[in-house]
Amino acid sequence: MRGKSVSGSASRVASVAGLLALALAGCSSAPGQSSDPMETVGNLFAFNSPRAPAIPASTGPASTSVICPIVDVRDGGAAHRVYNGNSTASADVRYQYSIGETARECSVENGQLVIRVGVEGKVLLGPAGGPSSFTVPVFIGVRRDEGQQMLASKVYNVAAAIPQGSTNTSFSVVSEPLVVPLTQENAAADYTIYVGFEGQRESRPQQARRRR
Protein backbone atom coordinates (compact mmCIF):
# COMPACT_ATOMS: atom_id res chain seq x y z
CA MET A 1 0.00 0.00 0.00
CA ARG A 2 1.42 3.42 -0.93
CA GLY A 3 1.91 6.18 1.60
CA LYS A 4 3.05 6.14 5.19
CA SER A 5 1.89 3.34 7.44
CA VAL A 6 0.17 4.37 10.66
CA SER A 7 -1.01 2.78 13.88
CA GLY A 8 -4.33 2.78 15.78
CA SER A 9 -5.29 3.43 19.40
CA ALA A 10 -4.33 0.36 21.42
CA SER A 11 -6.53 1.29 24.36
CA ARG A 12 -9.77 1.52 22.34
CA VAL A 13 -9.50 -1.05 19.57
CA ALA A 14 -7.13 -3.76 18.36
CA SER A 15 -4.87 -2.18 15.76
CA VAL A 16 -4.30 -3.60 12.33
CA ALA A 17 -0.63 -3.83 13.22
CA GLY A 18 -1.59 -6.28 15.95
CA LEU A 19 -3.71 -8.28 13.54
CA LEU A 20 -0.84 -8.43 11.08
CA ALA A 21 1.46 -9.61 13.85
CA LEU A 22 -1.00 -12.44 14.55
CA ALA A 23 -1.08 -13.26 10.87
CA LEU A 24 2.70 -13.39 10.58
CA ALA A 25 2.95 -15.49 13.73
CA GLY A 26 0.60 -17.98 12.10
CA CYS A 27 3.01 -18.48 9.20
CA SER A 28 4.93 -21.04 11.23
CA SER A 29 1.99 -23.44 11.14
CA ALA A 30 0.99 -25.52 8.14
CA PRO A 31 -0.95 -23.59 5.46
CA GLY A 32 -4.71 -23.67 5.95
CA GLN A 33 -4.53 -24.93 9.53
CA SER A 34 -5.40 -21.69 11.34
CA SER A 35 -9.02 -21.01 12.28
CA ASP A 36 -8.44 -17.67 14.03
CA PRO A 37 -10.78 -15.06 12.44
CA MET A 38 -8.50 -12.23 13.60
CA GLU A 39 -5.68 -13.85 11.63
CA THR A 40 -7.95 -14.14 8.58
CA VAL A 41 -8.70 -10.41 8.55
CA GLY A 42 -5.05 -9.57 9.18
CA ASN A 43 -3.99 -11.72 6.23
CA LEU A 44 -6.54 -9.99 4.02
CA PHE A 45 -4.84 -6.68 4.73
CA ALA A 46 -1.31 -7.99 4.41
CA PHE A 47 -1.64 -10.38 1.49
CA ASN A 48 -5.10 -9.86 -0.07
CA SER A 49 -5.81 -13.48 0.81
CA PRO A 50 -7.28 -15.28 3.86
CA ARG A 51 -3.99 -17.21 4.19
CA ALA A 52 -0.47 -15.86 4.57
CA PRO A 53 2.09 -16.96 1.95
CA ALA A 54 5.02 -19.15 2.95
CA ILE A 55 7.32 -16.12 2.87
CA PRO A 56 5.48 -13.01 4.09
CA ALA A 57 6.09 -9.64 2.51
CA SER A 58 8.44 -7.38 4.46
CA THR A 59 7.12 -4.21 6.02
CA GLY A 60 8.99 -1.02 6.83
CA PRO A 61 8.85 0.91 10.10
CA ALA A 62 6.08 3.43 10.61
CA SER A 63 7.26 7.03 10.09
CA THR A 64 4.02 8.80 10.97
CA SER A 65 1.70 8.17 13.91
CA VAL A 66 -2.00 8.71 13.29
CA ILE A 67 -4.75 7.37 15.52
CA CYS A 68 -7.21 5.49 13.31
CA PRO A 69 -10.95 6.03 13.81
CA ILE A 70 -12.71 3.24 15.68
CA VAL A 71 -14.96 0.72 13.93
CA ASP A 72 -18.59 0.87 15.08
CA VAL A 73 -21.31 -1.60 14.07
CA ARG A 74 -24.46 0.24 12.97
CA ASP A 75 -27.49 0.08 15.26
CA GLY A 76 -29.17 -3.25 14.58
CA GLY A 77 -26.52 -4.04 11.99
CA ALA A 78 -24.58 -6.81 13.73
CA ALA A 79 -26.98 -9.41 12.28
CA HIS A 80 -29.42 -9.53 9.39
CA ARG A 81 -32.03 -12.14 8.53
CA VAL A 82 -33.34 -12.97 5.07
CA TYR A 83 -36.89 -14.37 5.00
CA ASN A 84 -39.12 -16.15 2.53
CA GLY A 85 -41.49 -13.59 1.05
CA ASN A 86 -42.88 -10.97 3.42
CA SER A 87 -42.93 -13.22 6.47
CA THR A 88 -40.84 -12.46 9.54
CA ALA A 89 -41.54 -15.73 11.33
CA SER A 90 -38.57 -17.71 12.60
CA ALA A 91 -39.68 -20.72 10.57
CA ASP A 92 -39.36 -18.65 7.39
CA VAL A 93 -35.76 -17.55 7.90
CA ARG A 94 -33.62 -18.52 4.90
CA TYR A 95 -30.24 -17.16 6.07
CA GLN A 96 -28.81 -15.06 8.86
CA TYR A 97 -25.68 -12.98 8.33
CA SER A 98 -23.61 -11.88 11.33
CA ILE A 99 -20.48 -9.76 11.70
CA GLY A 100 -17.60 -11.38 13.56
CA GLU A 101 -14.29 -9.53 13.48
CA THR A 102 -13.42 -6.10 12.08
CA ALA A 103 -10.13 -4.30 11.54
CA ARG A 104 -8.90 -1.08 9.99
CA GLU A 105 -5.69 0.27 8.53
CA CYS A 106 -4.85 3.96 8.06
CA SER A 107 -2.24 5.72 5.95
CA VAL A 108 -1.48 9.29 4.91
CA GLU A 109 -1.29 10.09 1.22
CA ASN A 110 -0.94 13.63 -0.14
CA GLY A 111 -2.16 15.10 3.12
CA GLN A 112 -5.31 12.94 3.10
CA LEU A 113 -6.34 10.16 5.48
CA VAL A 114 -6.73 6.87 3.62
CA ILE A 115 -8.62 4.10 5.43
CA ARG A 116 -9.13 0.45 4.55
CA VAL A 117 -11.57 -1.65 6.55
CA GLY A 118 -11.75 -5.43 6.88
CA VAL A 119 -14.90 -7.30 7.88
CA GLU A 120 -15.20 -11.04 8.58
CA GLY A 121 -18.42 -12.82 9.45
CA LYS A 122 -20.65 -15.88 9.25
CA VAL A 123 -23.74 -16.96 7.35
CA LEU A 124 -26.08 -19.45 9.06
CA LEU A 125 -28.68 -21.53 7.26
CA GLY A 126 -32.25 -20.98 8.49
CA PRO A 127 -35.20 -23.42 8.60
CA ALA A 128 -36.47 -22.23 5.19
CA GLY A 129 -33.07 -22.05 3.51
CA GLY A 130 -30.96 -24.50 1.59
CA PRO A 131 -27.40 -24.88 0.30
CA SER A 132 -26.73 -22.31 -2.43
CA SER A 133 -24.53 -19.44 -3.61
CA PHE A 134 -25.55 -15.88 -2.82
CA THR A 135 -24.20 -12.43 -1.92
CA VAL A 136 -23.87 -10.77 1.48
CA PRO A 137 -24.52 -6.96 1.31
CA VAL A 138 -21.86 -5.43 3.60
CA PHE A 139 -21.97 -1.67 4.23
CA ILE A 140 -18.70 0.14 5.04
CA GLY A 141 -18.50 3.90 5.53
CA VAL A 142 -16.64 6.75 7.25
CA ARG A 143 -18.64 9.44 9.07
CA ARG A 144 -17.45 12.87 10.14
CA ASP A 145 -18.63 13.10 13.74
CA GLU A 146 -19.14 16.87 13.57
CA GLY A 147 -22.39 17.26 11.68
CA GLN A 148 -22.90 13.46 11.48
CA GLN A 149 -22.02 13.47 7.76
CA MET A 150 -21.12 10.24 5.95
CA LEU A 151 -18.18 11.27 3.75
CA ALA A 152 -17.33 7.97 2.07
CA SER A 153 -19.28 4.71 1.91
CA LYS A 154 -19.98 1.69 -0.25
CA VAL A 155 -22.03 -1.51 -0.16
CA TYR A 156 -19.99 -4.59 -1.04
CA ASN A 157 -21.89 -7.59 -2.40
CA VAL A 158 -19.63 -10.31 -1.03
CA ALA A 159 -19.89 -13.75 -2.62
CA ALA A 160 -20.59 -16.66 -0.27
CA ALA A 161 -21.79 -20.23 -0.60
CA ILE A 162 -23.16 -22.89 1.73
CA PRO A 163 -22.34 -26.30 0.26
CA GLN A 164 -24.39 -29.45 0.48
CA GLY A 165 -24.16 -31.05 3.91
CA SER A 166 -23.23 -27.78 5.66
CA THR A 167 -25.30 -25.28 7.64
CA ASN A 168 -22.96 -22.29 7.62
CA THR A 169 -20.12 -20.54 5.83
CA SER A 170 -17.88 -17.54 6.37
CA PHE A 171 -17.30 -14.38 4.35
CA SER A 172 -14.69 -11.63 4.37
CA VAL A 173 -14.09 -8.36 2.56
CA VAL A 174 -11.53 -5.55 2.61
CA SER A 175 -12.83 -2.20 1.45
CA GLU A 176 -11.44 -0.01 -1.26
CA PRO A 177 -9.47 2.97 0.08
CA LEU A 178 -11.80 5.44 1.83
CA VAL A 179 -10.26 8.91 1.50
CA VAL A 180 -11.21 11.75 3.88
CA PRO A 181 -9.51 15.02 4.89
CA LEU A 182 -6.80 14.72 7.56
CA THR A 183 -7.09 17.57 10.08
CA GLN A 184 -5.09 16.16 13.01
CA GLU A 185 -3.07 13.13 14.05
CA ASN A 186 -5.93 11.97 16.29
CA ALA A 187 -8.26 11.07 13.41
CA ALA A 188 -10.42 9.14 15.89
CA ALA A 189 -11.56 12.51 17.25
CA ASP A 190 -12.90 13.49 13.81
CA TYR A 191 -14.31 10.31 12.30
CA THR A 192 -16.04 7.00 13.02
CA ILE A 193 -15.99 3.97 10.73
CA TYR A 194 -19.34 2.21 10.40
CA VAL A 195 -20.03 -1.33 9.19
CA GLY A 196 -23.26 -3.30 8.91
CA PHE A 197 -25.59 -4.98 6.45
CA GLU A 198 -27.56 -3.17 3.77
CA GLY A 199 -31.32 -3.65 4.15
CA GLN A 200 -30.92 -4.24 7.90
CA ARG A 201 -34.36 -2.75 8.61
CA GLU A 202 -35.65 -6.33 8.22
CA SER A 203 -33.27 -7.67 10.87
CA ARG A 204 -34.66 -9.76 13.74
CA PRO A 205 -33.53 -9.46 16.43
CA GLN A 206 -31.72 -6.13 16.58
CA GLN A 207 -28.47 -6.16 18.49
CA ALA A 208 -26.80 -3.40 20.44
CA ARG A 209 -24.04 -1.45 18.76
CA ARG A 210 -20.53 -2.70 19.49
CA ARG A 211 -17.44 -0.51 19.47
CA ARG A 212 -14.08 -1.96 18.38
Describe this structure in words.
With 212 residues, this protein is mainly beta. It has a domain at 62-202. It is 10% helix and 41% strand. The chain is built from two helices and ten strands. It has helices at residues 16-25, 37-47, and strands at residues 4-5, 71-73, 79-83, 93-109, 112-125, 132-144, 149-162, 168-174, 178-181, 191-197. Strands 1, 3, 4, 5, 8 and 9 form a six-stranded antiparallel sheet that branches. Strand 4 and strand 5 (112-125) form a beta hairpin. Helix 1 (16-25) crosses helix 2. The longest helix has 11 residues, at 37-47. It is elongated, with a radius of gyration of 18 Å. Residues 1-38, 47-63 and 200-212 have low confidence and may be disordered.
What topology does this entry show?
Layout: E1 4-5, H1 16-25, H2 37-47, E2 71-73, E3 79-83, E4 93-109, E5 112-125, E6 132-144, E7 149-162, E8 168-174, E9 178-181, E10 191-197
Parallel strand pairs: 2-10
Antiparallel strand pairs: 1-4, 3-4, 4-5, 5-8, 5-9, 6-7, 6-10
Helix pairs in contact: 1-2
